Amino acid sequence: EDIDRNDIEISDIKKEINYSKIKLEINNLIYNAYIQKSLEFCFKGDTQAFVFLEKAREYKNYSSDLFIVESNLEFILNKDVDKSLELNRRCEREFRSEPTPDFNLIFLYLYKGDYTNSKKQLDKLLRRTNLSKCEMQASQIYKFIEKFINFKDKPVMFFWVGFNLYKITNNKPLAYKYFNDFLENFNEDKELIDTTKKYLQEIKDVIN
Predict the structure, then answer these.
(1) How far apart, in Å, are the Cα atoms of 26 and each of 32, 33, 59, 151?
(2) Residue 102's closest CA among 73, 62, 129?
(3) pTM higher than 0.85
(4) Are 60 and 66 in contact (CB under 8 A)?
(5) Rounded to an integer, what distance in angstroms lies between the CA atom of residue 40 and that of residue 42?
């Protein structure tokens, strides 16, 4: 009887563990769905995105995704660059292995015209050993800038797109085009200009 009772107890424990795993998986699915919905509405310019973000928090109240999505909402919907910067700085501190805040911070510093901090952040990004694994972030940056940024107003973004194409996705011909567009339209920071000229020469050396 003792053995049978033990077997029953072990069986019950296994059932509880399996139930917990299933519940966790379901919660993660719901969380991810709300995160995607929040971004979807954000990119449509709909403030309902904030509602979906809060719904996501009900299933997971601490993650890098929450910081990153909220930073997008603040930048796109509230036009609050400083708040977006603050969220990405915190995400960078608390999730050190997550590369997305590095990309976002460089973008935001360039957007503000803070070239000193953008270059510091760029150097930090270049020191990442897993830079080759950041193609998803580079692709997202490219799509984001093409959708939301006017290059005539922010010609420095020609550099940032070119950098991602050259250093991460390895699309040298397209990077060459963006770097040239940058040099033709930007004159605010000599160091960025010199860096771009260096990258252009490197591409020329490879292509030719």
Answers:
(1) 10, 11, 10, 42
(2) 129
(3) yes
(4) yes
(5) 5
